[in-house]
Automatic annotation (TrEMBL):
Pfam families: ABC_tran
Chief location bin: membrane
Membrane topology, record value: Peripheral membrane protein
Organism field: Terribacillus saccharophilus
The protein, known as: Dipeptide/oligopeptide/nickel ABC transporter ATP-binding protein
One GO MF term attached to the UniProt entry: ATP binding
Amino acid sequence: MILSIKDLTVSHGEKTIVDKVSLTIDKGEWFALVGQSGSGKTMLSQAIGQLLGPNLSASGSVNYQGANILVRPKTEMNELRGKAISYIFQDYHGSFTPFLTIQQHMDEYLQTHGVKEKQKRNSMIIEALESVGLDDSFVKRYPFQLSGGQLQRASIALALLLEPDILIADEATTALDSVSAHRILSLLQELQQKTGCAILFITHDWRHVVRYADKIAVMKDGKVIETGTKQKLVHQPEHAYTKQLIQAAPTLPMRVREVSKS
Ligand SMILES: Nc1ncnc2c1ncn2[C@@H]1O[C@H](COP(=O)(O)OP(=O)(O)OP(=O)(O)O)[C@@H](O)[C@H]1O
């Protein structure tokens, strides 16, 4: 197991946004988090890396390598983020500053994480951009000179630079056309196979869940109401809300069998 979340609660004053969620994510696992809009998926994922806004508080525990990272000092968390836990945000614009080029962003990130040799940093940057389908002409561009989908791909390249243990992807492919989305998800799958990283994948797209997930957790009103393997959850859902989600995608069971066979 790479991450063990126990009774994680996120509150905004008196209001409970995430309510005692417990989950375990194994090394190399593709873990899909699905469910109602506003059910707390983003807040849960941000609490893991201590990224919640100052008006929100988190309690419970998030164990990574034997320690509760929820109570780690901020400076240590900055080091952990990127190498141990990396994020691809739903709002990818937030990953970029308008007055730095794509290369400057990535170079600064690598320097912060101790990659000292300039030549090595440059080749890592080119390789990461190429892996998301952006050629070297993109390195000198500023964020506003990229389309939404290209910028999202650059943010994914940034997140993958240090080959993290856990990648948290929050609706990472929403801005992409279906071919680009498939390319990115295949890339994440490759990375997962190559490095054994775990992926916490937040999505509303059941096609992606069915194709890529190993395990699924369903959230509703701040709680995880059901969790299990993809096969179990799609073929034998127990909770009425999970059944509703699956009924909204009526061809799913057949697809799961097809994907399982391929
Ligand atoms: N900074 C914040 N301060 C207070 N409440 C917040 C804040 N950010 C989000 N919320 C609230 O927390 C709840 C959970 O939001 P969250 O973004 O985690 O939902 P989600 O499941 O990711 O939704 P979606 O699928 O629509 O992205 C919502 O009711 C939202 O309004």
